[in-house]
């Protein structure tokens, strides 16, 4: 994977994961040399380090940030960049181009056996042990919220208010709107029954969230991972056959989240990774009609 690096000391060249490199830095070098090594690792170069007779050569990107994010520019992917930007956690994006089949790479399947993005590896878990990997965007949001103490209330009643709306998104809003996208935009034949079913179900779900937002600013108490999970699925509302004017509370909530600097940074990152919003016929072949493997 991209975060592999080669570290050459007095013994033969060996391949290390970025996690092993990080352990090496903290275990063998003092802070100053750690910094030298850190900056030496910033590019595709090699150098002699002061104090120890070591030569370091780096392939790809060098040391891992705290979080490795396996990501593509889709609503489920945006959820995680939004969280990471909100919480200001250092992270590295590893693009998994799902239209080109990257999700079937054996290394990716080891951490995401359902061949879906997003997935993360936390290189600095709170127990100080080996990295922890997590797949499923709801589980990732919960994991990151718990790790950082941010965007999920601690108090039990408030916490489960937020978790209910997070899992409402995971079980309802995401899958149903995903089917809406499929039948309205991507299916090779336009099947009126399927399109109508999912456009109506989308309207119903928008209505549920709109009602919920009638007497509160966010889905559950303060802005939380419940809102972060829902927002990217509302972004393509026009393609889903919806008009936000029909859902005034939802519209107010949507505009408030859209204006958040962290949300804007997350979507700017998406543009850097992939500015092409169309789906090629090759990508459709990869994504649709997957069978058992
Ligand atoms: N329930 C999963 C759904 C993830 C999902 O459907 N990811 C899509 C992109 S939004 C994907 O990776 N598709 C690749 C494929 O279908 O092979 C989650 O929320 O993480």
- What string gives the helices and strands in order? EEHHEEEHEHEEHHHHHHH
- Which secondary-structure class do the elements indicate? alpha+beta
* CATH domain topology of the largest domain: Glutathione S-transferase Yfyf (Class Pi), Chain A, domain 2
Strand percentage: 5-15%
The dominant shape is globular
Helix content, binned percent:
40-55%
The end-to-end distance, rounded to whole angstroms, is 22 Å
Which whole number gives the mean pLDDT?
85
**The number of domains:** 3
Query: Which blocks of ≥5 consecutive residues have pLDDT under 50?
Result: 1-17, 26-62
Biggest β-sheet strands, sense, barrel: 4 strands, antiparallel
- Give the C-alpha Rg: 22 Å
- Strands, count: 8
Distinct small molecules bound, one entry per kind:
glutathione
CATH C-level of the largest domain: Mainly Alpha
Strand order of the largest sheet: 2-1-4-3
Please give the count of helices: 11
The CATH architecture term of the largest domain is Up-down Bundle
């Amino acid at each position: 994977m991209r975060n592999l690096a080669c570290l050459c000391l007095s013994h033969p060249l060996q391949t290390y994961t970025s996690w092993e490199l990080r352990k090496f830095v903290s275990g063998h070098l003092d802070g100053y040399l750690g910094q030298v090594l850190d900056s030496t690792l910033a590019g595709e170069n090699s150098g002699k380090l002061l104090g120890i007779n070591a030569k370091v050569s780096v392939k790809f990107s060098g040391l891992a940030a705290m979080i490795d994010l396996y990501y593509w520019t889709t609503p489920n992917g945006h959820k995680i960049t939004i969280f990471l930007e909100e919480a200001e956690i250092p992270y590295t994006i590893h693009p998994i181009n799902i239209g080109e089949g990257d999700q079937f790479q054996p290394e990716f399947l080891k951490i995401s056996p359902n061949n879906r993005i997003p997935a993360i590896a936390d290189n600095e878990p709170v127990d100080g042990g080996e990295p922890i990997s997590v797949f499923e965007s709801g589980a990732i949001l919960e994991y990151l919220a718990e790790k950082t103490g941010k965007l999920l209330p601690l108090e039990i009643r408030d916490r489960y208010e937020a978790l209910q709306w997070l899992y409402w998104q995971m079980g309802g809003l995401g899958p149903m709107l995903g089917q809406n996208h499929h039948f309205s935009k991507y299916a090779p034949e336009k099947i009126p029954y399927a399109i109508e079913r999912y456009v109506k179900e989308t309207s119903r779900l928008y209505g549920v969230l709109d009602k919920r937002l009638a007497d509160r600013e966010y889905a559950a108490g303060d802005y939380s991972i419940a809102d972060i999970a829902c927002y990217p699925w509302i972004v393509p509302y026009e393609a889903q056959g919806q008009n936000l004017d029909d859902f005034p509370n939802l519209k107010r909530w949507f505009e408030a989240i859209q204006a958040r600097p962290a949300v804007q940074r997350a979507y700017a990152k998406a543009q850097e990774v992939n500015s092409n919003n169309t789906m090629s016929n090759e990508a459709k072949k990869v994504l649709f009609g997957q069978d058992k493997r």
